[in-house]
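Practice set, problem 2.
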Amino acid sequence: MLSIGAPLKVVSSPDITTHPQGINAITGATANFSVAAGGGGLSYQWQKNGVDINGSTGLALSLANVQLEDNGTYRVLVSNAAGTVTSSVAELNVRLPDILAEFNHGLAAYYPFNSNANDESGNDNNGTVLGATLTADRDGAADKAYSFDGINDKISALFGNAPIGYSPRTLSIWLKPSSLDSTVKHSINWGNTDIGQAFGITKLAAGHDVAFYGYEADLDSNASLDTQWHQVTVTFGANGNREQQQGGPDGNVVKVYVDGTLKATSPVNLNTTGTSLLIGTALNNSNYWKGKLDEIRIYSRSLGATEVGRLWSLEKPRPTVADLPSAQAASAGSDITMSVTATSDSVISYQWYKDGNAISGATSLSFTIVNAQAANNGRYNVVVSNIQVSVTSNGMDLTINSTAPTITTQPATQSV
């Protein structure tokens, strides 16, 4: 008697045909790793630095809004009933933006106020100016910011791609109150006037603190404003756990930064609705801003703390340098002192140059040549730097006369 057995199915071991490749990325980008493998009944487990990444069990691994803490080595284990094989290691190298043009990942709206209120993010959320007037920005450049009278000036825009609901976001603005009074002043908002449905930045009446505004879902930074320029940045999103970065009422926090420094953080239950963007006023057209506003950036992602710090360092006011005399002459053997007047809101460094070459040790606001000689003739200038940028002074031509002047013929007395 013959028996008919079940067909024998042979499963071949997994074979990786395409390994994950290394990626260089700027913070905020999306890093995509992938693998291709042969063999039946395959399963996948991605790892970072040799440790399983929870929930990452597909052909591809996608990391949105990458930050410096995502740097590391990535690989995938491919398995079936016949065994497991491990891919080659792929390295992820994430860096901060070096220039402002690289701060574009997730940029939903950008108002640099370059003589108008146009949105330069490419999303065409252009503003309509109602009363506000162009003025000098924090670097003194004319027509690069807007001034608001505190009565009825505002800029409005239809923000079609506004981050709403529970979605992550960042709002950054430069502001300069022209006066400090005991009233709330709104710099920028979008959404609706219902609890938790707005998103913006205000100056509080008490202590003139800058605060996040969510319409009765607010957060005081406990940082008082003065009448100088300050950058205020508010982020809303996951609290650092990559598994929570898709948003939702749990695990999301508001963080308020002033001049790149974290001032306050707290969970806030937001559900922003509405796409009406108002600059210089509250959503119900009240509590108008009095002062200047500039350089508004809105992102559809939550910037990390190191990104906020870098944005501040790239946007902060550059130092200003008063001109040196165009030329100076002196006698041989004299002492010559050159000095410069520079201003900045942060620590300044100096480097003096002669004929384009750095002078060793000449790193203060003044530079003295003792017992000057003809060898000291040349063109001198100084480079003044802060954390953001360097500014070069004009050049000064120094001429050392080899001998003091002498009178060879005295004037003679004459009678007429």
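Problem 2, part (b): a different protein.
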Amino acid sequence: MEIEYPSMLILPELCPDETIYSLLARIARMNGISHLALVGQLMGEEYPITVMGCPVNLKHFCDFTHNVYGTPHEVLHRLTLLTLAAHLGDLSASMLTGIENGTWKPKLATFAWGVQKGFEWRICKACVARDIEVFGTAYWHRLHQLPISKYCTEHGLLLEKLDLRRIRDDGRCFTSRSESRHRRLRVTSVDSRLLAQTQSKRKRI
């Protein structure tokens, strides 16, 4: 089935300590498109089967968004737990380099959870309330997902665990206020025909 990509995307400003999955979910929600179509478009995957199983081409993501969220190196450090995994010895420096230059494309689940096993994400109820008040929506915090994180370092509250196998997407987890309160970085125009040509060239290569 052919995935119809939007000709233009609205990119929200990055929230403090936000995960890359949370950012992608907010972009999809703000533009009114499915998460699957969005990750396929931003990651350069023509026929993604699942959101979490979509291969992540970080270089394509940064090129597509004109580096508004940073370079691949910066996105890797700011929006994922993979650099921590490297410090712990679970990933090598060459693997991180491969992710940055797009030669290695881990699944989105790897970016979301790092290399830890399990399907539980954590939230702080005080952070949820504060984020909705300040940013107009709640979002996934990167520090809350660290393997050693049990309490919110800001509020001192025990983090609540959510089983992602029972949740379709993060829009089901939080009750968000109007997206109109989001600060927006820019509107990026994308010609769908140009995108199709790029994907066709990549297939031939």
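Answer key, part (b): The first helix runs from residue 20 to 31. Residues 19 and 142 are 5 Å apart (CA to CA).
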